[in-house]
Amino acid sequence: MQSWNQGDDIFRSLKEGFNDLSDKVNKMVGEMWEDNSGVPGSFMPKANLYRTSAEYVWEIELPGVKKEAVKLSIQEGALCLRGEKSTTPDLRHDMILNERGVGRFDRDFVLPEDVQVEGPIKAKYEGGILTVRLPRTEPDAPEADGGFEVPIES
């Protein structure tokens, strides 16, 4: 029969093992959902949005995405980003680890009320960052009807 101290050690060991397993599961689930898509290996661009006195500025990370694979438009009060990040697998080697996300992406950013959509909209893609600038106007200014594409400069 085991003494109380030995049983306590077994209980402590089981508890530590359970906590370790729980941490690993939480980390795995967190990484899976980190890119907002829920599909391991998929790609979802991350973005920052800030405003100045004259404009709103989106900075969207698109590492490894070709400019030609990105479409930017204004539709129904949203800045819409569509595209695809693709990669050509190196078939000369067996894949051991594949963490780089690929695939189609689709993000819509609801425009603030004081965005002037009929004003000069600027989009520039450089170094894997798409910067989109939309001028600000008065909050009661009417929105443009319909949608249109926004050209992206290099």
How many DSSP-defined strands?
A: 8
- Main beta sheet: 4 strands, antiparallel
Portion of residues in beta strands equals 25-35%
Query: Portion of residues in helices?
Result: 10-25%
Distance between the termini: 76 Å
In one word, what is the shape? elongated
The helix-and-strand class reads alpha+beta
Q: Using only CA atoms, what is the Rg? A: 24 Å
Mean pLDDT value: 79
Instruction: Detail the poorly predicted runs.
Output: 32-38
Spatial strand arrangement across the major sheet: 1-2-7-6
Total number of helices: 1
Order of helices and strands: HEEEEEEEE
Which features characterize this protein?
single chain; 154 residues; alpha+beta; 4-stranded antiparallel beta sheet
Could you describe the 3D structure shown?
- This protein has 154 residues and is of the alpha+beta class.
- Helices cover 19% and strands 31% of the residues.
- The protein contains 1 helix and 8 strands.
- It has one helix spanning 4-33; strands at residues 47-51, 55-61, 70-75, 78-85, 103-110, 122-126, 129-135, 148-149.
- The chain has a 4-stranded antiparallel β-sheet with strand order 1-2-7-6, with no helix packed on it. It has a 4-stranded antiparallel β-sheet with strand order 5-4-3-8, with no helix packed on it.
- A hairpin with a 2-residue loop joins β6 and β7 (129-135).
- The model is unreliable at 32-38 (pLDDT under 50).
